[in-house]
Amino acid sequence: MPMSAEAISLLPAEVIWSSLLMAGATYLAIHFLLKLVFDLDNCRLEQWHREEPRWNCLRQVSGLFKSFQPWIVGLSRLVDKYLAFMMKTDKPTSHGQRAVQLFVRLVFGDPARMQSANRALHAVEPWSVSERLACGFAFSTLAGLFAVFVLVDSTITYRGYLLIVATWFAAFRLWRGAVVSRGERRRRAVRRFLPHAMDCIATVMSSGDTFRTGIETVIRDFPDHPLCQDLQRLRNELDRGQVMATALQSTAESIGLPEFDEMVRVLARIHQHGTPASDSFVRLAKQLRVSHLRHMEEEVGRAEASMALPTMLVMASCMIVAAAPFVLSIMESSMFQ
Distance (Å, rounded) from C-alpha 33 to C-alpha 38? Predict the structure, then answer.
């Protein structure tokens, strides 16, 4: 029920002025954020040819971006302007830069891993790194507000503030870890399928067809595989008239695997020196199979090494269970009475 003018006149002046000052401070604190979030005309006019096609793709594949595009884009502009140090992967040159980089890695995670995961996922979800960080900040802020609502009925002490901050950082690291994990899983799937794709392309080229026909064959046989999605983007870039070397280099940067980089070097050597394409791809396919077997052996070795600690714990627990009756009988005997 709204308060009457007489009730308002009975309020102390300190309460009125403190409320007005709090409202003014809140407005000044979020004014620049609201201005960046809702003032997107200049951004669209300046970056139309570079950002608008990517945003159109994001609106089609991400309901989150479609629903909250102004907020995500506005927060990403804030990240680009004020938190650019969280995305830098270059080597520091001074002690201050090293300290900042170490702090960022310990608190917010390694920027190089985030960049790598974002490149791996760019074929299906063309987010920028700043937009992903903006989503992570928004998610962690909502988690922090939830922690505030949980503690609203009790007095918030220093432990409560620490809990809110810990909830914020835990939510942000959870969001970041999910993105990095998705990127790593996609890269592992591409690495496992790449030798089979090269075998298929080598077979097609040995029969007299071109490299592009081999790509289309792989895409047609495995349309939903992550590697085929990258190859689909490569084919689309070639259809738009992009040079083969430039399109391959862009795809190699997105995949980020030395095996695919080797395929790019083989194609460059074929175009420069005119070497037989089919023979080169047959040798490349054999090399990739050997490399794939080596990676599988490394994964088996890491799995065996990770089983050492659980095996020791199981053995220790079995020994405790086996020795427990004897220990209990000795403790109940007259020796300790």
Answer: 9
**CA–CA dist 114, 116 (Å, integer):** 5
Cα–Cα distance for residue pair 158/229, rounded to 1 Å: 50
Tokens standing for residue 149 = 């609502």
**What is the distance, to the nearest Å, from the Cα of residue 251 to the centroid of all Cα atoms in its chain?**
18
pTM (two decimals): 0.72
CA gap 267, 248 in Å, rounded:
9
13-64 pLDDT per residue, tens: 666 666 777 777 776 666 666 665 555 455 555 565 677 778 888 888 888 8
Any residues with CB less than 8 A from the CB of 57 and at least 6 apart, and which? Answer: 126
Which DSSP string do the residues of 103-131 spell out, in sequence order? HHHHHH--HHHHHHHHHHTTTT----HHH
Residue 5 amino acid letter: A
> DSSP class of residue 39?
-
